[in-house]
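Following the same procedure, sequence and fold were stored together, as reproduced here.

>
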Amino acid sequence: MTGSPQYTGVNWALTSVSIALTGGRFAIRGYYSRRFFWDDLVYLIALIVLIAHGATNQITNDAKVQLALAAATKGKPQAKLLNMYYHVR
C-alpha cells in the first residue's frame, strides 16, 4: 500500500525535472569547458540530498497513511504499522 498518489506524483515529477536539469547542466558544462568546478560538486551533492529527502518523505508519508487507515478501521491497529512510523519495539 502506498501513500497519497498526488504527493507521490508531485514529489517524483519535480525530482525528475531536477535530475534532468542537472544532467543538462553537467552536459553543457562538460561540452564547453571540458572540466568541472567546485560548484558542480556542490550541485551534485544537493541533488543527492534532494533524492534522499524525497525518498524519506515518501516512506514517512506512506507510514502515516497506513496508520490513518488502521486507525479508521475497527479494532486494534497492527503492531507492524506502529513500528514502521514510531520505531518502537
